[in-house]
Amino acid sequence: MLKYTAIFGLALITGACAYKEAGQPLDGQYFGQATLNNTAVLSGERDFRVELAKRFAQDVPTTINFDFDSAQLDGAARQVLSAQAEWIRQFPEVRFRVYGHTDAVGSQSYNKSLGLRRARAAVNFLVSQGISRQRLEAVASFGETQPLVLTDGRERRNRRTVTEVSGFVAARVNELDGKYAAIIYRDYVESAVVPSTLTSESSLSE
């Protein structure tokens, strides 16, 4: 029995050290992070729209709030939308959707209309910051149906718009194929550029 146990153990060790068959997935340790993400997207393991949405939510605030029964943007809302616009300008291939919400005070039909007016106010401000209206949608309003705080009273946190990644500009969606790392991780790619060490002709002539 001991003999067979030893042989079985040796076989496991040998198998662990052997090369994988052709077509088997490569170990992740052989990939850099950008290559790993690019491989995951192209294989369908990771949806690049979801990845962009996560990055947008991590980099900038996605939500602004409103006064009661108002679709006017205050200073804080404008500041957040300005930050969103700056981020959106870096990704001209991406489309965004703004969702409007209200609190529970008032009728459902009125709140649905108010939520849409809030979404349109946010979109109009983004357009004023140089974002193409063709890349922005304010077509959905949840009205009072998706509160952050469950209450029938006035609740500022429920009176909001939320900006999210919705898709890609049709003419540019193919850019997110093999160029995924170059587009999604622009900062990563730029940081990897090695500064030139060549001496210019002007410095040589001096």
From TrEMBL:
Highest taxon above the source species: Bacteria
Membrane as UniProt keyword: yes
Keyword Cell membrane appears in the UniProt entry: no
A GO CC annotation given for this chain: cell outer membrane
Protein name in UniProt: Outer membrane lipoprotein Omp16
Coiled-coil intervals: none
Protein's cellular compartments: Cell outer membrane
UniProt entry keywords in alphabetical sequence: Cell outer membrane, Lipoprotein, Membrane
Domain (OmpA-like) ranges: 53-169
PANTHER family: LIPOPROTEIN YIAD-RELATED (PTHR30329:SF21), STATOR ELEMENT OF FLAGELLAR MOTOR COMPLEX (PTHR30329)
Cited InterPro entries: Bact_OuterMem_StrucFunc, OMP_bac, OmpA-like, OmpA-like_sf
